[in-house]
Amino acid sequence: MKIVALFFPKASIGTYLVAMAVAIALPIFAFVTLLLLQLEDNQRSTLRRETAQDALALSRIIDRQLQDMATTLRLLSSSPELENGNLAAFHERTETALRDNTLFVIAVDRTGQQLLNTRRAFGTPLGKTANIPSLEAAMASGRIEASDVFRGRTSGDWVYNVTLPRADDPVAALIITQDAKDLGKLVTTEGLAPGWSAAVIDQSGHVVAATGPANLEPGTSFDPRILPAFTASRGVFQDETILPHMLLGYARIPGWSWKTVIWGPIAQASILSTWRFLIVGGVALVLVAVLGAYAVARQVRTTIRDIAEMANRMGEGHIVSPVETSVIEANQVAIALSNASFDRSQTEDRLRFVMHELVHRTKNLLTLAQAMMRQLAKQADSVETFQAAVADRLEGLVRSIELLTSEQWGGVSLRRVVDIHLQAFPQSRDQIDISGEDFVLKPDAVQNLGLALHELATNSVKYGALSVPQGRVRFEWRGVREEDKPDALLRFTWEESGGPPVAEPTRSGFGTTVIKAHAASAFRGTVQVDFRPEGLLWVLTAQRATLERD
């Protein structure tokens, strides 16, 4: 009691209101300070992550270009004209096919002597290819390779080659060449912040193509102090000595010797001005709060005395009417005291209902999460694999819970459930065809169907039709007649096509459990899973009553 009396001595309400204003302001200042520091750190982390992702996106664009060139070389290598040694016909056909492109084809023998070059008319005297080292490297490796950027003898511009070695004579290798400036059209800073640049770098550290304010020309050596830091497949580089107030992201192009980089200034708000505003504004706010607290204290003192008198009379057993004061809240307290005995029972019933719903929903979610983690733990071969699997499944569950919460657990339309789960795979959304009559799902059906749909889409993106650009998925639902009851059953169909060949897995994992056993049990129906070579087929037939909200 002595310690309490030391910190809370007897004093007027005005004194306590002023002290309360100060006590509230100080923690707020401390909290805002922490928020500012955390915000600055989060901005840095977000910028680093987005920079690495932007570099990776650029690498995928360049990879598609190189892969297209490699595919063209493979097709040309098997042409009948080339097999029959008719180079003139091969030159005419190739020139016609690539007339609308910026690509040119060169055929060389084992010494590098050009036999034809679609930049020139057939029969024009030609010398050896300008980049003999890249030709020799491709011949030695026996696979398609991209060269470093170099100055072409025929074009006179900076170019690069993609070389396909052949075992036949006299054409020992086919080369597709393109001007570096034409590749530069694919290198864009669209979507990046102002002041950012992007570039493609070859194996020797020279710029193949670039764009942005850095204005790097093809053939320019990239900063040799930065290149040794590109050790991972992708990442970021930051050094105030080399790149003051700037950030650089890089990514290796898979299967090739090139890399993509983006870099630019780190744009941050002035923290100093924010701190200055916080201090000056905080002091002014405290002064205003102290004066306001004192003025309010005088008014509240009278109001409290009136309420206290009312409470005393109620304690003595009198029936009292609410007192009328100048403070609206005090009037509400007076009314509440008068009606407390009548409202208490209703409030307790409402609390019991809320607690019951909370316990029910929590038990369901915890049971589902526990079963999910138990299944995944049996299959995971490392902590990292387990964490990734749990995070992926919980993400799908969270999407369903967010939907239900927004509707106060009253059910969600089927079409909205499908759309919100497929938003997790924006790169594949255009490959999915959805059809079916919309209706409102029950809360439990939202979670269970969402889990199955998320699992099907995740597996398809990893291994099935959505893992390749030409893959397609058809997802539809329709009513099925049962005896004399039309639409008593619902049939959901997930059908994949155009993807990699499918083979039935050797062991059943958590994903298979979700789309088969869990789906069948949750909807009291049947599930058909067919691992057809042309694509997965999943069919769920369930009672409509287990899905549709009344």
Automatic annotation (TrEMBL):
It catalyses: ATP + protein L-histidine = ADP + protein N-phospho-L-histidine. Residues 357-438 form the Signal transduction histidine kinase HWE region domain. It holds the Pfam family HWE_HK. The keyword Repressor does not apply. GO terms for molecular function: kinase activity. The keyword Lipid biosynthesis does not apply. InterPro entries: HATPase_C_sf, Sig_transdc_His_kinase_HWE. Coiled coil: none annotated. SMART domains: HWE_HK (SM00911). The chain crosses the membrane at residues 16-39, 277-297. Keywords: ATP-binding, Kinase, Membrane, Nucleotide-binding, Phosphoprotein, Transferase, Transmembrane, Transmembrane helix. Its EC number is 2.7.13.3. It comes from the Bacteria. PANTHER family: HISTIDINE KINASE, TWO-COMPONENT SYSTEM SENSOR PROTEIN. This is histidine kinase.
